[in-house]
Amino acid sequence: MAAERYITRSCGINSGEVCVNLEVLFSNRGHLLPDFLLSVYQHFALSYPKFYKMDNLSKLGWLASELLLKNAGMNEKYDPARIAVVLANANSSLDNDLKYVKTISEGASPSVFVYTLPNIVIGELCIRNNFKGEHAFFIQDEFDADFIFKQVNYLLDQQLASACICGWVDVLGDNYKAALFLVEDKQADNMVTFSPNNMTKIFNLVK
Amino acid sequence: MSAGEYNGRDIYVVTDNIVSPLGNTTGANFAALRAGKTSVQKHHYKEIAPEAFAASLFKDNDSFYKGDGVDYTRFERLAIASASEAINNSGIDTGDDKTIFILSSTKGNISLLETEEDNAGLHQRVSLATSANLIAAHFGFPSKPVVVSNACISGVLAIITAMRLIRSGEYDTAVITGADVISKFIVSGFQSFHALSNEVCKPFDRDRDGLNLGEGAGTIILSADNKYSGSIKVLGGAVSNDANHISGPSRTGEELAGAINNALKDAVVAAADINFISAHGTATPYNDEMEAAAITLAGLQNAPLNSLKGNYGHTLGAAGIIETVISLQSLKQGLLMPTIGYQENGVTHPVKVCTAVTEIDAKTFLKTASGFGGCNGAIIFGK
User: Fold this and answer.
1) What part of B 359-378 touches A (C-beta under 8 Å)?
2) CATH number for the domain formed by residue range(s) A6-205
3) Rounded to an integer, what distance in angstroms lies between the CA atom of residue A198 and that of residue A2?
């Protein structure tokens, strides 16, 4: 039998709203994505100069991870080499790829090119939090909770990781959605059993 | 399920393929490498770059799948060509629901952005999920394909993902295909980083000055079916992150060393039992320095090592698979391939770079990869 595992926290960002554990903490509808992302950064009084250099995908994923991991005490509880990150999306880095391709004729920019890979958002999370463990980025038509569930369970069952941040971070133009889950063996407040059904339920509630 | 149960399942290499400018089969590619060939050369393709650049590119489309009425892209036709040859040689049933198709690519159909009108249809067409669905449908795989896109470790991570999906009993067989094609998008980006060499690259060499880009595809088919017992097995693998910089490697190499150590543990193999290493060896100053430091930290500095980037260039999402396939042949034939371009040690922690076709009595090898986003991957195969 698999150990009882919990989604100890979740964070969703979609349609101008930010939720943590399905509670709406901030709402600012009707803005273009870059303006909305900046408003989230400012509302939660985050301070991380690298944020301004990121593309929209990394900004979205980074903001969701900051709110997901706030007061989670990851670095006190876990060895950094045993914190895993498993993410997926539908549009890879296309949002930034479209921007990059327009710059080629005027002189390509390395600071734009570097974000033409979807796993850079994982790199940004790892740099911010000093996570050094297993990670993977998958491209899926739509959020496949069952697949992510199995990937995360493998890492935890095999004791390749002690905790995992997993979920979905997708951006294309003004369509965007982040739904991140912190999965741990230990119980915590607001715990929800880690299961594909519960992931899908939370994913769908992040409207 | 307790730890250890997964590891009880042996996973065998059924067959493999490489489609590259050096040949369309594993055999043709191995023979070309044995003869010291490289497909890296200067190109003057204005549609790719205004100045001449060194890369390994297909000269025509003879190597590519010709189509069956479906409007496949060049990238998809390359991936299908590689997967077809491997599948036809394997006798596996692609219609079995315990068989999974895994696609590894960094940029897939990205060149379409250079030529096609920007609209929702293009966004859908350029998606790696679209490519994977088309390729899976071509072969009749019933399960939803998996797409791994994790920079330059994509190929190694795709093999590790397959190994884990088979170990957990989810699937019995996996067809893993990695492919990337080179266009203006990719060349201009690497040029903007000043990461490209103007000649055949020189992995681990004192005068190394950057990488070459390359086109190609590779396929590996893995199975837990005992009828393949006696074949080479995938023994273990692991991934780590540097948590240092998105476009530069670790300063110490300790994170890649961590992935190597975890792969050894997963494979239940001691460092001393690794008979050779297929390194990432891109020939950029920073990558090779970090990689050599990591190999030394993992206690593997005396294991013979090669980098095939001088033969193929950096084939991105295909690299981990193509280089693994050559290493599988080295294991089978007892012949380690040399590192084209290497002459004199150029890293702080010297590694044992193989410079000539060398007879070896090898049972086990390690394949490593590292890439943007601070990612590192390590995988171990053995007889």
Assistant:
1) 372-375
2) 3.40.47.10
3) 16
